[in-house]
Design a protein that fits this description.
Layout lengths: L2 E7 L6 E8 L16 E6 L4 E4 L2 E2 L11 E6 L2 E5 L11 E7 L3 E3 L2 E6 L12 H6 L4 H14 L4 H40 L17 H18 L4 H12 L6 H9 L1 H20 L6 H9 L6 H8 L10 H4 L1 H6 L21 H10 L11 H7 L5 H10 L11 H9 L11 H9 L2 H13 L6 H9 L6 H8 L10 H4 L1 H7 L1 H14 L4 H14 L4 H41 L16 H18 L4 H11 L4 H14 L16 H13 L2 E3 L3 E5 L6 E9 L4 E3 L3 E2 L2
Parallel strand pairs: 1-10, 5-6
Antiparallel strand pairs: 2-7, 2-9, 3-4, 3-8, 6-7, 8-10, 11-12, 12-13, 13-14, 13-15
């Protein structure tokens, strides 16, 4: 059986072991390196086949890890560098061993654990890491606090509620009154416009339109507008602003406040984070029951047990009696089992009487090994009758008073009337002892089982605590099995294993401190509570919601109905006024013009034409006739002048038009021929006359097959 050598975290890399090698004949220490004749190294994982390790050379004990590396340490031990596959996830232990020609070794066992006992923060447990300062869940709490820190305080929400109440007053009272007034005015307009009639047929008393009448119409129109008191543009603008929102008491302001980026983003973030956190707790009905089930061996909560088994792909086999922390603590190598063994006797030990019987009843044939007590007894000659008698009678009776023993029986009878008048003969004594030869055999057997233990107390003390070891006991423990064990009380005793858990306890103590009143995480939650406590209570929020509902009723029902009524009336007005047409063109049925009106219109038209002094037909005929007198020579001279005498400025900065004059197109060609140009791998530029201003440009490219230039665009 392999002795426990160390505990490794699963998937550890570049690990080494110490193997003790000894002579297969006399058991003396052997020095073994990679070149030792017949060297064969191996490892075997739990439930797996034996896997060979190919020996490799190491130049010194300080060399870096090399799979299969072998280097002697001393006293028959050698450093063996093992491959990473030996400690991979999938097994709970791995055994190592080896041999060489005429050389054997003591196999060692490495316990493979999910815990990382060298991790001072969380022993490799991701769940604990999440809660550490800067861990995943700690960062989530920080994020929640960052959101709650920017939620508007109670004062801002109170102001919001007050503004909504003011809007409710406006929409439910003030606007209603103003709309009712507008409705009354529109009703009056409908009555007036109805007088026009179809195509103005109702306008039957216009008379004439002298200058005085125009002035009178203007005056009357002014008076009518004054009397009518129609709303001015400024008044309509103000009413529109009140409806659409320009001040702090408008619907727009409330909408802006409700839709503001800070509030909406903050509330959305809080909601999202809370939803995310709740999602991460899916499948956990009670965290306390989960943690209790994982911690102790008590009868589990059925719901928590079912939920734990349902994680991953489901159908888990977790059992608190074997898999909880308490169960793991009670399980080797950290439980009650003795260090270096696979198990320990947990039944009631045999009594002294049973041991004595077993010793005397043990067959001597099974105990004849050279140098053993059985061999010595088997080869010893029987004592003479005199020697036996002397030994029996010379034995101190104080050491033989155990209940049921011969000493107790003899002493009891020595004081009673049952004592024979004559002592037993030597023959009788020998006969009595011979009849109990099984007891002697059993005692010999028991003593044989204690071979190798000088002091049980020293052994147990060495296995229990980290105190300085008794040298004899330590040597005896390390010599068990194939010998050369590496047991050390400072690392392998129960006290040492308990101290290994100190780092984990430190972490859990840190978490307890974080969650304690005034701790880091507790203060974060307290800060969040301060923000949520400042939010309006249920009554204030109910009032706020009620006011918003009332506003929605006004804006969605009452105001809609009134505006719809006004809209219907305005539609009727539009129909009537449409009869007028543009500039009164639709008024085709005014009843005709009187003779006076016609004369007035004719006179006004004559005056207007005279004042305008438009050319007469005769004047136009004369002017057009003069245009026909141009000769071909005159036309040619003008063309020559335009081409040879007139000058044209070069086109300025800008993109050339697709459709333009012939002169402009010629100008661009001349500018491109005359002015400065430059060409790079990606750009073509045409400069102005000053040689520095880029007026036109385009992009160029060449992929080795096709050279291309884009359409000309404006500079620079």
């Amino acid at each position: 059986m392999a002795a426990l050598h160390d505990i490794w975290t699963k998937d550890s890399t570049d690990r080494s072991i110490l193997l003790h090698f000894y002579d297969s004949t006399d058991g003396s220490d052997e020095t073994v390196d990679h070149a030792t004749a017949g060297l064969s190294l191996w490892y075997r994982r739990e439930g797996g086949a034996k896997v060979a390790i190919t020996p490799a050379a190491l130049s010194a004990l300080t060399d870096a890890h090399t799979d299969g590396g072998v280097e002697p340490v001393g006293d028959g031990t050698s450093r063996i560098d093992v491959p990473d596959a030996a400690g991979a996830t999938g097994a709970s232990y791995v055994d190592f061993g080896g041999s060489a020609t005429g050389v054997l070794s003591n196999p060692v066992r490495i316990r493979l654990s999910n815990l990382n006992l060298d991790d001072a923060n969380s022993a490799g447990l991701a769940a604990l890491t999440d809660w550490l300062n800067g861990g995943r869940l700690d960062l989530l709490l920080d994020a929640i606090k960052a959101v709650t820190d920017v939620i508007p305080d109670a004062g801002a929400l109170t102001t919001l509620s007050s503004n909504i109440s003011s809007i409710l007053t406006d929409t439910g009272t003030t606007l209603d009154a103003k709309i009712d007034a507008i409705d009354a005015i529109v009703d009056a307009i409908v009555i007036d416009t109805a007088e026009i009639g179809v195509a103005g047929v109702g306008l039957t008393n216009l008379g004439g339109m002298s200058t005085t009448m125009k002035a009178q119409v203007n005056t009357e129109a002014d008076t009518a507008l004054t009397d009518y008191d129609a709303p001015t543009k400024a008044e309509l603008d103000t009413a529109e602003s009140n409806i659409r929102g320009v001040d702090s008491d408008t619907l727009k302001t409330v909408s802006d406040q409700i839709d503001s980026t800070a509030t909406a983003s903050a509330l959305s973030t809080v909601g999202g984070n809370v939803t995310t956190i709740l999602g991460k707790w899916t499948g956990i009905t009670s965290l306390a029951q989960w943690l209790g089930l994982m911690a102790g061996k008590q009868t589990p909560d059925a719901t928590a047990l079912a939920e734990i088994k349902a994680t991953g792909v489901g159908s888990g086999t977790f059992n608190a009696t074997t898999d909880s922390q308490e169960a793991l603590r009670d399980t080797e190598p950290m439980g009650t089992a003795m260090r270096g063994t696979d198990g320990a006797n947990t039944t009631t030990p045999p009594t002294v009487t049973a041991i004595a019987d077993q010793v005397w009843d043990e067959a001597t044939a099974d105990h004849v090994g050279a140098g053993s007590t059985g061999a010595a007894l088997g080869s010893a000659s029987a004592p003479s009758a005199a020697q036996v008698a002397d030994a029996v009678w010379d034995e101190a009776k104080a050491g033989h008073v155990a209940a049921g023993s011969f000493g107790e029986e003899i002493q009891a009878h020595a004081l009673s009337s049952e004592l024979p008048s004559e002592p037993p003969t030597v023959t009788q004594i020998r006969t009595e002892i011979d009849s109990n030869s099984t007891v002697a055999s059993n005692v010999t057997t028991i003593l044989g089982k204690w071979t190798g233990i000088t002091s049980l107390a020293q052994w147990l003390g060495l296995m229990a605590g980290k105190q300085t070891a008794n040298a004899t006991a330590l040597t005896e423990i390390q010599a068990t099995g194939a010998g050369s064990g590496t047991y050390a009380a400072t690392t392998d005793s129960q006290e040492a294993i308990r101290d290994k858990l100190t780092d984990i306890e430190t972490d859990t103590n840190e978490l307890q401190a974080d969650w304690a009143n005034g701790g880091r995480l507790d203060l974060l939650i307290d800060a969040i509570k301060v923000v949520t406590d400042a939010l309006p209570d249920g009554g204030a929020l109910t009032t706020l919601l009620s006011n918003i509902s009332s506003i929605l009723t006004d804006t969605g029902t009452t105001l809609d109905a009134k505006i719809d009524a006004i809209d219907a009336i305005v539609d009727a007005i539009v129909i009537d006024t449409a009869e007028i047409g543009v500039a009164g063109v639709g008024l085709t049925n005014l009843g005709g013009m009187s003779t006076t009106m016609k004369a007035q219109v004719n006179a006004e038209a004559d005056t207007a034409l005279t004042d305008y002094d438009a050319p007469t037909k005769a004047e136009l005929d004369s002017a057009i006739g003069a245009l026909n007198d141009l000769s071909a020579a005159q036309v040619n001279a003008e063309v020559v002048d335009a081409l040879a005498t007139d000058t044209y400025a070069e086109p300025g900065q800008g993109a050339p038009a697709a459709t333009t004059s012939l002169a402009a197109k010629i100008n661009y060609l001349y500018k491109n021929w005359r002015n400065k140009k430059d060409q790079t791998a990606t750009n073509w530029r045409l400069y102005a006359d000053d040689g520095t201003t880029v007026d036109q440009k385009s992009t160029a490219s060449d992929d080795g097959t096709t050279a291309a230039k884009s359409e000309i665009v404006t500079g620079p």
